[in-house]
Design a protein that fits this description.
- Helix content is 22%, strand content 27%.
- The radius of gyration is 19 Å and the shape is globular.
- The chain is α+β, with helices and mostly antiparallel strands and 296 residues long.
- It is built from 5 helices and 14 strands.
Length: 296
């Protein structure tokens, strides 16, 4: 039988019954109507929620829409599948259709000095971890600056990531990718994980997405109301409490082929990771790749 959508139209390639290697009846599509009903409200942050079956990158699409004047603050773009999802350092992100949460949101924090916008990916991390803890019952830790970690079989695994990009002079698009139902045989690398493999009590993506976006609205509003102050908003404390990098021996791979090894001791007021080296120097790192060398 040819698969059909809720309106009775034939489903696209990759839907159950299509013969695609990713076909899976246990991965139903998101319900865009229900998502809008649950998230859009007068006076709220979210102003539009659109779900597309497939795209290259929700971040790229939303940045382009913002540049064309076709998206306002609070626009959320969700994809059932991303074919060219991107992480930091231009790393690629791919997963089977309907196996995760892949979305981007447009924010315009006019009340916050641009110097504090660097907190937005960290804020998003706190919001995602909080939302997933509530809705999926999974303890999600944060690896500085933008990775989401879960525990699978006693091992720390990356289950998601965050990418923030400027959208014109007054906007930022924050993109989130989270593996929800990836099985062991579908993992792109052995170090990857998913909420299902971490023992989530629920992998229903509709309530998971609603919980994450409500948490993001809550944290963003709190941060924006105090002019982006990470201390007054409670963001700096919350990030430190959930950061698996702190207290670890790490190696920071920095621009210019330089590296720093030491203990990650703090996240400072600018969102930088402070590393205490063996030479007794405390070096703040604002950009780079962090490798955990010692378990917490």
């Amino acid at each position: 039988m040819t698969p059909r959508d809720a309106a009775g139209n034939p489903g696209p390639p990759g839907q159950p019954g299509s013969g695609s290697r990713w076909s899976d009846l246990d991965r139903p599509p998101l319900n865009a109507v229900a998502l809008r009903r649950g998230l859009l409200r007068e006076g709220g942050l979210w102003t539009a929620v659109d779900v597309v079956p497939r795209t290259g990158s929700t971040n790229s699409d939303l940045v382009a829409l913002a540049a064309a004047g076709k998206a306002g603050e609070g626009t959320v773009l969700v994809a059932e599948e991303q074919t060219s999802g991107r992480g930091r350092l231009d790393r690629r992100w791919s997963a089977p259709p309907r196996s995760g949460l892949f979305f981007s949101a447009l924010l315009r924090p006019a009340e916050v000095p641009v110097a504090r916008w660097g907190w937005l990916p960290l804020l998003t991390g706190v919001a995602v971890a909080t939302g997933l803890s509530r809705a999926a019952g999974v303890d999600t830790a944060l690896k500085w600056p933008n990775d989401l970690l879960v525990t699978v079989g006693g091992q720390e695994r990356k289950a998601g990531g965050i990418l923030a990009e400027r959208a014109g002079p007054d906007g930022v698009v924050v993109g989130v990718g989270v593996n929800v139902t990836l099985r062991a045989g579908e993992l792109p690398v052995p170090q990857a994980g998913s909420l299902e493999l971490a023992g989530a009590v629920s992998t229903d993506r509709d309530p998971l997405l609603r919980a994450v976006l409500r948490s993001l609205e809550e944290w963003y509003g709190r941060w924006r109301r105090v002019g982006g102050d990470p201390s007054l908003s409670g963001l700096q404390e919350a990030y430190a409490a959930g950061c698996a990098t702190l207290g670890r021996t790490v190696r920071a791979e920095l621009p210019g082929e330089r590296s720093v090894v030491g203990e990650a001791v703090a996240v400072d007021g600018d969102g930088r990771l402070v590393i205490a080296t063996r030479e007794g120097v405390r070096e703040p790192v604002g950009a780079g790749d962090i490798v955990h060398l010692r378990p917490a």
